[in-house]
Amino acid sequence: MQIGGTTYFYTPDNNAGQGQGGGSGYNGGGGDQNNYYPPPPGGPPPPPGPPDGFYPPQEFSRFVDAPPQPQHVPPRHGGFPQGRNGATPYRTAGSYNMADNLRANLQRRIELTQPSIEGVTRQQGPARVCGQFHTLSNLEAVKGSKRDPVGKSRAAAAFADIQSQTYKCTNQARGCVCVLRRITAPTDIPLDHAAPLLQHWTTFKHPAVVPLRGVYPTNDWNTNGPPETVFEYDYLPGAVTLDQAHLLPSTHSNASESDMWHTICTLIGAIRAVHEAGYACRSITPTKVLVSPGRKLHLNCVGMLDIINPGSTQGLHLEQLQSEDLAALGEILLYISCHSKTASFDMLKGTNYSPALKQFIVYLCTTTPITVYDCFPHLPNHLMLEVGNLTSYTEMLEAELQKELHNGRLFRLVCKLGFINERPGMEYDQQWSETGDRYILKLFRDYLFHQQTDKGSPRIDWGHVLVTLNKLDAGSEEKLALESRDHSNLLIVSFRDVKRLIDESFMALLRASETGASEQNMNMGMAMGMMGMGNM
User: What is the pLDDT along the chain (536 residues), one digit of tens a residue?
Assistant: First the structure.
């Protein structure tokens, strides 16, 4: 197919595209439109022209219909050339995006932060708590939840005496989803005397400890009775307790050897951080250790007993409380390894775990006093494995984050084009987006998204869009051909010129937006002044 028309070479010193219509490509909406190549060797060179502005028009029907394919450029149609072992040496469109399994996990977390989720019932209670928490959902209405603490340790016995209810809600002040643990039994917590403890636990940070955000007295549930106390914690989407994960009768999955050592290394690290800060956890029970997706473990309700009942530790030394933390950890490991809440050392001997793991569990349960540093000689090999696994996982997350960083960069370009293209009017100019430099951007939009095949059907080529946007963002000097929709004109322009035109047009929109906002504020001020004069 031969096409007659006029070719224009755009230079920055002249506005282009004063004509009507729009389109893209150089083949009349057909053929391969991903790149524009210069005339073949031996063809007519462009005639000399002035240093700026459009070059004089020339006939391009001899070479623009089907430019030769360079040898180094792979064919865009048909099969891809095969690499070693039959592999295709090209990236797929999906490789530019986050991995599917990671995306699914993150989307599931987002779904769980929504106000209503299947299996979670909306609490028929106060609309607001403490003036800033709203949209409460009762987390303990989830099927399979367990409220009563399990274990024989002093911490388990202390939590057994505390009546509490847990809610997921939205903190309006921080603009995020959080968890409120409501102490339903009346408690007289001297918050003034507990200020040092609150200061410590609200500023304490460790990846394996659920952070405490605040403690508040409230009468929102019981308006006529004594005030109740609520503890605010971060919300961990999809997290369950160790009791739910391993000890409920409906749970049939046994923890593997690697899972056991992973649990030990993670919780030992959290206990070490708390002990080095000069405190004790006092919350290591199967119902207060959370397991979130990705085998992440977290100590929950750390420091709660110290705040609720500051006198409960009278007569007990800190070293004794810290030793009880490690004994409670050994008790949890014994329950999980035997998959029973009534586990014993005899049952542990009949499991298939390694002798080193069994000996370490017995060591934690029977050695008193014991410090966290006494545990380290049993863990060097497993700690090295954990460090290697965490390093690999971190590198994977950074690689996935880099993909989304590039996608965000390209998304900004697409947004700028969306603000400019097809704008009905700007500053009383109804043809603003169709004239001047904006006409070139309209042609570029068609070149980017409105490609067609030889038969006239839409061509959906993600690779073309990604490659073109990356060249545009880099400001490449490579030329591309933009064709009007009536196929009568062809404009040769570089990616650098298109990027500059986008920036200039977008800045013009920003200036107009700021000017309009200033005039609106001034008009509102004048109107308010007139109203004030009318009331005098």
Answer: 334 566 667 766 655 444 333 344 333 333 333 333 344 445 445 444 433 333 333 333 333 333 343 443 344 443 444 455 555 555 666 677 788 888 888 888 888 887 654 444 454 567 788 888 888 888 875 444 444 455 556 666 656 667 788 888 889 888 889 999 988 876 666 667 778 888 899 999 999 999 999 988 888 887 777 788 889 999 999 899 998 888 877 776 678 999 999 999 999 999 999 999 999 998 899 989 999 988 899 999 998 888 887 666 665 788 999 999 999 999 999 999 998 888 899 999 989 999 999 999 999 999 988 999 999 999 999 999 999 999 999 999 998 888 888 888 889 999 999 999 888 877 677 788 788 888 899 999 999 999 888 888 898 888 888 889 989 998 999 999 898 888 888 889 999 999 999 999 999 888 888 876 555 554 555 555 544 545 54
Tell me the whole-structure pTM to 2 decimals.
0.68
CA distance 144 to 120: 12
Element (H, E) at 178: strand 176-183
3-state secondary structure of 503: helix
Q: What is the dihedral angle through the alpha carbons of 20, 26, 32, 36, rounded to the nearest 10 degrees?
A: -120
Beta bridge partners of 94: none
Residue with tokens 């388990």: 156
Q: Is the dihedral of CA 127, 133, 136, 139 positive or negative?
A: negative
* Alpha-carbon gap, residue 61 to 38, rounded angstroms: 13
SS (H, E, C) 52-70: CCCCCCCCCCCCCCCCCCC
Report d(CA 135, CA 123) in Å as an integer.
8
Compute the 3-state secondary structure of the chain and give helix, strand, coil in percent, each to the nearest 5. Answer: 45, 15, 45
- How far is it, in rounded angstroms, from Cα 281 to Cα 261? 20
Contacts of 181 (CB under 8 A, 6+ apart): 164, 165, 166, 230, 231, 233, 301, 304
Task: Tell me which amino acid residue 238 is.
Answer: G
CB 239 within 8 A of CB 295: no
Interaxial angle between packed helices 462-474 and 437-449, expressed in degrees from 0 to 180 and rounded to the nearest 10: 150
d(CA 210, CA 236): 8
Q: Which is it for strands 133-138 and 121-122: parallel, antiparallel or unpaired?
A: antiparallel
Residues contacting 29, CB < 8 A, separation 6+: 23, 452, 456, 487
DSSP, residue by residue, 394-432: HHHHHHHHHHHHHHHHHHHHHHHHHHHTT-S-BTTBTTG
65-70: long-range contacts at Cβ-Cβ below 8 A with a sequence spacing of 24 or more?
65/1, 65/2, 65/3, 65/27, 65/31, 66/27, 66/31, 67/26, 67/36, 67/37, 67/38, 67/39, 67/40, 68/37, 68/40, 69/37, 70/37
Whole-angstrom distance, CA of residue 216 vs CA of residue 254 = 39
Give dist(CA 208, CA 196) in Å, integer: 22
